[in-house]
Amino acid sequence: MPELDEAALAFADSLRLLNATATEVYAYYGAEDYKNDGFAKGKALHKPLLEQLEAFVAASKRFLDTFDNANDALRQASLQRMEKEGRRNLAYVHRTNAAEHQALAFAQLADFVSFLFWFSLKKKSHVFEVDII
Length: 133
Description:
mainly alpha
C-alpha cells in the first residue's frame, strides 16, 4: 500500500522536525536564555515551530484518513470473500465488529498521542504562554 507508506513516512518526518524544534525551544526557555537575548531566538523559532506544528497536524490527518481508507478496503474485501464462500459465521461477525473497533481505537490513540505531545510542549515550555511576536 504505497499511499499508506507515503502517509506514514510524511507523518514520521513531520514529527521528527517538530520534535527537534520543540526540543530546541524547550532548552532555550528552560535555560532562560530569553532574558539575555531579548527573546531574539524565541522570535526566530516561533514561526518554524508553528509551521511545523501545522505540518504535523496535516500529516497526522492524512495518515489517519489513508489508514482508515486502507483498513476499510481490506475489511470489505475480506467480508466479500467470506460472503462469496458462504462463510457467514461467527468469524464473519467478529471480523465486521473487530475491524470497526480497531479503526476507532487507532484513531483515538493517534488523537491521544497528539494531545500528549501538545501538552508536553505546553507544560515544559513557556513558548505558548509568552507573546513573542
